[in-house]
Design brief:
With 375 residues, the protein is an alpha+beta fold. It has twelve helices and 19 strands. The protein has two domains: 156 residues, no CATH class; 150 residues, Immunoglobulin-like, CATH 2.60.40.10. It is globular and about 75 Å long. About 5% of the residues have low confidence.
């Protein structure tokens, strides 16, 4: 059977890497000895989530294939048998630390550069000398040494390091199934929001008395306070008309992951009773206020996009604004208009396909709300 192009590419990449030897893998827990606070932050992040502790990811991966774990490229990148996972010769192993560490500390801090390509970008690991302690990279000037690793500053961590996994992904049919970054962007735009400067030194001993470090919580949509910061919501009313303006302040599109949906919920109340809503049963009824990917394989709609041959998306581009217009019932004094932007981490049809309909992934999580009362 013909192997997919990306499987052949990774087999070649890994075989070349093997020629340069390898050092002992430093698992996530070993980092906590010196970087206790950063380790705690990381453990609460979704970089620490993977096949074994993220039910949505595991269910989707298994739905795509019960043999190959192609997601390992980004979600299990330090696997000691990465090519076997991708090709289907091996499955994720719950007692293998290079598997259970997910997007590990060691992986992120040993990236030498990012090779840009059409289908998806490739994180290229730094060559490490056999039988010597590894060199870990970051953005600190004059980083401290340790008995476990050498340290060095690498400009890639302010440039392209995030683009290895967070730029784009096209499937084998050349259909975009994920896009978060453009070629002109650098990692600093990601770090500014998702890794803010916080109190506390990078090392437990804080030998250089730095006093501050970059947070490794990798704040995102799961954080209630953080998700409020990405979008501005404004409304204006006339007697029978509502205008809703959304401003995306983020450096990536409003919707980037195919499993998720963001949507408007608009409710008009009169004397405490619902008078009008922008949808009746499901938010997808309001096509302009429903931001999501839609995929097809030929003429048939598909939910899991691995085999999709086309897509369309209702989105709001990075740093852009859109005004949505609604015809509403004639308003009276005292009427209350509630406009909320919500997110579901797994949209209804996706949650159904992977049997997670009753999980919290299908809950409506408020991003931002505006309440107007007619005078």
């Amino acid at each position: 059977m013909k192997q997919p192009l990306f499987i052949c590419f990774f087999a070649l990449l890994l075989s070349v890497t093997a020629l340069f030897g390898s050092t002992k893998y430093l698992d996530n827990h070993s980092c906590s000895e010196c970087h206790e606070k950063i380790y705690e932050e990381y453990q609460s992040s979704f970089h620490a989530k993977g096949y074994f502790n993220d039910s949505l990811h595991r269910k989707i991966a298994d739905k795509v294939s019960d043999r190959r774990y192609e997601c390992a490229t980004c979600h299990m990148p330090m696997a000691d048998n990465l090519s076997d996972l991708i090709s289907g010769k091996a499955r994720p192993n719950p007692i293998n630390k290079t598997h259970t560490d997910a997007i590990s500390c060691y992986f992120c801090h040993t990236i030498a550069y990012v090779r840009e390509s059409h289908q998806f970008n490739i994180n290229t690991q730094a060559r490490q000398a056999t039988n010597y302690k590894p060199t870990l990279y970051g953005r600190l000037n004059k980083p401290d040494e340790s008995d476990k690793h050498s340290s060095s500053s690498n400009p890639i961590y302010a440039q392209k390091v995030c683009m290895g996994c967070h730029s784009h992904k096209l499937n084998e049919s050349n259909t975009t199934i994920f896009r978060a970054m453009d070629k002109g962007q650098d990692s600093l735009s990601c770090i500014k929001c998702h890794m803010p400067d916080v109190a506390g030194g990078a090392e437990k001993m804080d030998k250089r008395a730095r006093g501050r470090h970059i947070s490794h919580k990798f704040l995102g949509i799961h954080d209630k306070a953080f998700r409020k910061t990405g979008v501005e919501l404004n409304c204006s009313l006339s007697p029978a008309h509502l205008s809703v303006t959304l401003e995306n302040k983020m450096s990536h599109p409003l919707i980037i992951q195919p499993a998720r949906v963001k949507f408007l919920k608009i409710v008009i109340e009169r004397k405490g009773q619902p008078l009008w809503q922008n949808y009746q049963a499901q938010p997808s009824e309001d096509t302009q206020g429903y931001f999501a990917y839609h995929f097809k394989q030929g003429e048939h709609q598909v939910i899991i996009p691995a085999e999709a041959t086309s897509h369309r998306v209702n989105n709001l581009d990075a740093n852009s604004r859109k005004t949505l217009e609604y015809t509403i019932p004639a308003l009276q004094k005292g009427d209350c208009v509630r406009v909320g932007l919500y997110v579901r981490l797994a949209k209804r049809d996706c949650a159904k396909v992977v049997e997670l309909e009753k999980s919290q992934l299908s809950d409506d999580l408020l991003i931002k709300e505006m309440v107007l009362t007619v005078d």
